[in-house]
Write a structure and sequence with these properties.
This protein is α+β, with helices and mostly antiparallel strands. 24% of the residues lie in helices and 35% in strands. It has four helices and eleven strands; from the N terminus they run βαβββαβαβββαβββ. A four-stranded antiparallel beta sheet has the order 6-7-11-9. Strands 1-5-2 form a three-stranded antiparallel beta sheet. Strands 3-4 form a two-stranded antiparallel sheet.
Length: 136
C-alpha cells in the first residue's frame, strides 16, 4: 500500500485517509477521490491530502475489518457492513454477551493496526452493537 500526502491533483483514484473539514468542504475518511473531489479540495485551498493506494495483493481496510469480524463473530452475532476500516458486530437476539478477554487481548496483539473492542460481560437487546473490529 502506498500511503502519504499528495497535492489534490495527484490524489485522484486514491482513498482519503482522514476526514477533511475546511469551510464548506467535508471530505470523509474512506472517500475515493475523483475529479469532483479534486476540484472541491482545490477550491477549499487544500494543498495536500493524505491518501492510500492499494498495490497488487493488498486488501482494503474495509475488507480486512469485515474478514476479521466474520472470523470472530460467534453464534447469535451478525457483522454489519464494514466502513472506514470498522466492522460492527450486532446481537441477533436479546441475551448476555460473554467475551473471552484472553482471546481478545491476543487478537489485539497481532498487529497495532488491529483493535477489537467489547465489554467483558454485557446485557444486549436484539440488534444492539456488541463490539467493533477496527483496522487502521
Amino acid at each position: 500500500m502506498k500511503f502519504g500526502p499528495v497535492p489534490p491533483r495527484q490524489a485522484e483514484g486514491a482513498t482519503a485517509v482522514h476526514t477533511i473539514r475546511q469551510g464548506a468542504l467535508v471530505l470523509k475518511k474512506g472517500t475515493l477521490i475523483g475529479p469532483a473531489e479534486v476540484a472541491a479540495l482545490e477550491a477549499a485551498g487544500i494543498a495536500e491530502i493524505v491518501v492510500s493506494r492499494l498495490e497488487p495483493g493488498d486488501v482494503s481496510e474495509d475488507q480486512a475489518a469485515a474478514e476479521i469480524a466474520n472470523a470472530v463473530a460467534g453464534e447469535g452475532a451478525r457483522v454489519d457492513r464494514a466502513f472506514t476500516g470498522r466492522a460492527n458486530l450486532f446481537a441477533d437476539a436479546a441475551g448476555v454477551l460473554v467475551v473471552d478477554k484472553t482471546a481478545i487481548d491476543k487478537l489485539n496483539c497481532v498487529d497495532e493496526a488491529i483493535t477489537f473492542t467489547s465489554g467483558k460481560r454485557s446485557m444486549l437487546a436484539k440488534a444492539v452493537r456488541g463490539s467493533t473490529m477496527v483496522t487502521s
